[in-house]
Amino acid sequence: MDTSNTWLQGVSVLDLTRYLAGPACTRLLTELGANIIKVEQPPYGDPNRSNRPRINKRAGTHIQQNRGKKSVCLDINTEIGKEVILELSEHVDIVVENFSPGVLDRKGLGYEELSQRNPRIIMASVSGFGQTGPLSSLPCFDLIAQGYAGIMHMTGEADRPPMFVGIGMGDTNAGVHAFAAIGHALFHRERTGRGTHLDISMVDALFHMHDMPVHASSMTNGEYVPMRQGTEFQMLSPAGSFKGPKGWIVILCAEAQIQNLYEAMGKPELQDDERFIGNPARLDNRAALTEIIESWMQSFGSDEEVIQKLQSHRVPCGPSLAPQDALNHPHFLERGTVRTVTDPLAGEIQIPGFPFKSSDPLPEDNYTAAALGEHNFEILNGLLGKSPATIKELTEKGILFAKEH
Q: CA–CA separation, 120 vs 94, rounded Å?
């Protein structure tokens, strides 16, 4: 029995993506053993290749997002390039693209054209606003999606301007949603034999992440007004960021953990303090309770000592880790949340690990990021059967391109 986690072994993907949202999807498909053919536009390929930092002209973003993918550098704006894409669509199960809506249709490479060549094909289109709707034709980047989806409105201090989340959450979140949708589309195809066109919107995917703001506003006829909460979680006290001896410590106590917190602090008398009996009272007297907690924290020499004391009493808490602080954290390393990969040009670098675990071991991680157009010959000759002379001619005409780095 094959106990490896190559669940997508034998599944081929035509990757027409660039930047972040699309590659975030196909990066996950790669990890499960799919064969990814990444088509890049000459002469520079995916803009990720030029991101900094770089070592020996190799960008960390390119390594992180495109390891294990085969690179074909092809001008799809030419008739010959278009025909190559149509031919490739006959040999793959999945197409992933994140062009602006309508671009591929105008090139004659939209879902209708590809599905005529291959009725079983699954196409995932990732965009800012989606393929339909009044906003669909507008340009959209991560921050714009965060704004429309209400993420910025809910982030920051209530009396300060809305803040964007400091990572490309809209892009990567849309990529994960596309990855999930593709898996279910494959399952549906196994039962029906039919492919489908998946329309994944950054705004839709972000909006779906809301917990209370949407339904609470609806159910109370607007009486509940969602608002950013700063360092304090709106629904509970104590809950939020607290100033430790050096940095910030996150605590969230529901009713079941309050006594544990008081015992950890050596202040059992607080459970009889009328200001703090029940969550409504603690919310009303939040500032006073926060001052007591932070004063207690200052009696320690380090944040780690505070956290160890709280955790020994089963108080839900943790540090506010900077990403670089996670690189050597034992929990992140043991689970592979952070992993070290080796690139032939950049050497060893650390990147985020595969986020899903199962009882099957993951496939062996021996992926490398391809040079631009590294697999032109392999794909056009080996898969499409084009002669070496034809490939040479396409290269001389600039329709095919390759570059060492």
A: 9
The tokens describing 132, both together, are: 């339909």
Contact between 85 and 109 (Cβ < 8 Å): yes
Mean per-residue pLDDT for 239-244? 97
- What dihedral angle (degrees, nearest 10) is formed by the CA atoms of 75, 76, 77, 79? 100
From the list 222, 243, 221, 241, the residue with the least C-alpha distance to 232 is 241
Tokens of 13: 């993907």
CB 241 within 8 A of CB 231: yes
pLDDT digits (tens, 9 = 90+) for 343-377: 999 999 999 999 998 888 777 788 999 999 999 99
Q: Which two tokens stand for residue 129?
A: 């606003």
Both structure tokens of 85: 């894409």
Provide the residue ranges of all domains of the chain, joining segments of one domain with +.
12-208+356-396
CA distance 150 to 331: 32
Residues annotated catalytic, as ranges:
171
CA gap 294, 285 in Å, rounded: 15
Could you tell me which residues are beta bridge partners of residue 35?
12
Residue pLDDT, tens place only, 60-101:
999 999 999 999 999 999 999 999 999 999 999 999 999 999
Which of 103, 67, 100 shows the shortest CA–CA distance to 85?
103
Give the pairing type, strands 35-40 and 196-201. unpaired
Mean pLDDT of the chain, nearest integer: 95
Residues 6+ apart with CB under 8 A from 247: 303, 319, 320
Return d(Cα 81, Cα 76) in angstroms, integer: 4
Q: What is the DSSP letter of 100?
A: P
Separation CA 124–CA 140 (nearest Å): 18
List C-alpha distances in Å: 110 to 75, 82, 124, 175, 202: 16, 11, 11, 19, 20
Question: What's 12-208+356-396's CATH class?
Answer: alpha beta
Classify the C-alpha dihedral 299-302-307-309 as positive or negative. negative
| 3-class DSSP state of 224 | coil
List pLDDT tens digits, range 226-237: 899 899 998 899
